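Input (structure):
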């Protein structure tokens, strides 16, 4: 018997990251908080930024869904990051990637947001070149998404 909730989580994390198991709720919470703090680094947590991470949490059926909806992003990001070992080890690059995706959701990756992302990367022991490569991947993914949608629905999305 299949558990649709568990299967959906596993499919998504495998499809996106190649994971064979679902990260812990604590790791999800740390990622949600970290990326929202980055998104607010320009002084504004745009609705599109919050909605992007809320949607991700919903798709993952994450325990952090409600946190993503309400978190004020006023904590120190370094303190938040220190609360989850996996995020500081194997998940380091994932935090940066998701921060870039979330911060870009409003159509602008503000210089203050990028500065916060670089700060996190330094704390996590990642070089600037790694961050720049992840940023480039995010731009390429956005372009591929637009191309895919355009090819699938040349007359506009039906829904």
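Output (sequence):
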């Amino acid at each position: 018997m299949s558990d649709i909730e568990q299967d959906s989580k596993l499919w998504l994390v495998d499809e996106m990251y190649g994971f064979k198991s679902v990260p812990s709720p604590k790791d999800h919470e740390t990622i949600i908080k970290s990326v929202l703090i980055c998104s607010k680094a320009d002084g504004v947590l745009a609705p599109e930024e919050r909605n992007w991470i809320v949607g991700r949490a919903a798709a993952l059926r994450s325990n952090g869904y409600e946190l993503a909806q309400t978190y004020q992003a006023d904590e120190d990001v370094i303190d938040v990051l220190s609360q989850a070992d996996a995020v500081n080890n194997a998940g380091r690059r994932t935090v940066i990637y998701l921060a870039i995706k979330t911060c870009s959701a409003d159509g602008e990756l503000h210089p203050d947001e990028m500065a916060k992302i670089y700060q996190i990367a330094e704390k996590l022991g990642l070089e600037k070149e790694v961050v720049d490569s992840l940023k480039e991947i995010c731009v390429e993914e956005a372009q591929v998404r637009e191309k895919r949608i355009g090819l699938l629905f040349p007359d506009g999305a039906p829904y």
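Notes: The chain has a mean pLDDT of 92. The longest helix spans residues 128-152.
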